[in-house]
Design brief:
The protein is mostly helical and about 150 residues long. It is built from eight helices and no strands. Helix 3 runs antiparallel to helix 4. InterPro entries: AhpD-like, AhpD_core, CMD-like.
Length: about 150
Amino acid sequence: MQSRMTNPAALLPDAVKGINLIYKAAHSAGLAKSTLDLVHLRASQINGCSACVDSGARGMRQAGETDERLFAVAAWRETDYFTEAERAALELAEHATRLADRGDAVPDPVWEAAAKHFGEAELAALVLWIATTNFFNRINAVTRQPAGQNWG
């Protein structure tokens, strides 16, 4: 697959500045980077974003993530590789990514499970990072960014 254009964010310096600020905010709220990485990978799998799945999984592996957990992210409910907090984050990521799949996009029990494990700043980071991942996924899908390519 060939990309249609250079990633739009790389073409607009002000966009890169904004993206970097959101990245910094989400990653400085006290939430474990591994949790942010898991929700990024899961949302990217759902959206079929090969560039984000590839780069996310590679980054997670470089950070020391195990193959068992990497291979099981799409089937997180059926494994015991993830903590209860990670499961709550993954479920929130799935609901926040599949907004149109149900009338109540993020039901109270899903939110409450996440709120049980994360403080308000961590929840804010989680929601922002899920939304940012979906943002990246959509840019990459529209412009057909191939896996294995770096931008910016």
